[in-house]
Write a structure and sequence with these properties.
The complex is a heterodimer of chains A (93) and B (209).
Chain A: E1 3-6, E2 10-13, E3 18-22, H1 36-44, E4 52-58, E5 66-72, E6 78-82
Antiparallel strand pairs in A: 1-2, 3-4, 4-5, 5-6
Chain B: H1 15-21, E1 29-33, E2 37-42, H2 45-56, E3 67-70, E4 73-79, E5 82-87, H3 92-102, E6 109-112, E7 117-123, H4 127-132, E8 149-154, E9 157-165, E10 169-175, H5 176-199, H6 201-208
Antiparallel strand pairs in B: 1-7, 2-5, 2-6, 3-4, 4-5, 7-10, 8-9, 9-10
Helix pairs in contact in B: 2-3, 5-6
Amino acid sequence: MLQIDCPWCGMREEMEFSYGGQAHVAYPKDPHAVSDEDWAQYLFMRDNPKGLFLERWVHSQGCRRWFNVERHTVTHEITAVYKPGEPPPAAKP
Amino acid sequence: MTASTDRVSPLENWTARFAAASATPVQFSIREVAFATHINLRVDAAAFGAKVRAVLGCDLPVVANTWTTGGECSAIWLGPDEWLVVAPDGRNESFCADLRTALSGVHHAVTDLSANRTMLEIAGSDARVALAKGCPLDLHGSAFKPPQSAQSLLAKSQVLLQCVDANPVIRVFVRNSFAAYVAEWLLDAAAELAASRNLDTPRIANRLA
């Protein structure tokens, strides 16, 4: 089981959290102008890297807040946790 | 035949079983604290905490997973902009109205949740161990003490724990529909501890040390 460091509550067990998929998938600025193919791309297609992955989690049984996690998909090692609106670790200067 | 309009708490019929389980209160006691006023409050505490304090007589805790008390109320941290206000029975309508008046024009939400949860108050030297059997939190006396609170899972049921006293006295806020299940689970956990204490006193003493 993962130990996840909720930005508000601190280290808690994975069973208190729910997974929210890939982070930083931006909603199209003008959804009506998007082609069917691009809309499907936005809705359904996600990265599936072997390595570090930025993903969303929600502390659903705790403070019920969403946040972002950088997790290695092979080792499950969590290398960063940051609040919504904050830049991912690699983008930091 | 007319139906009774008396309200019934979720654990109304458990009084005798709770009394039996609380026979040795130094080790374990359990009771229901029913019908308290529960109000969910969402507001920017840094900017408008003073308005809330004027109504409740209680500061909103800004440190995560802690609670404060003042006046008739306790305020328990639920999230960075969300609190549960616990007050005596019957104060829900007046507090909700007063909060809405005080916060009018401010981005906020006041929701009366008095019928959402009931409280189980457990105490005694077995209380922490009994909870720890079904809860992933560190409930040791050095890690969970007043004024701390926590939202977590107890035997797969979502609960809010409030450490009222280090002795310990711990309040377990549980949804009404889960109350009987959680009560049954707690009584079973405590019964097992009581039984194993009779069998193996030093081992239990070591676990509690």
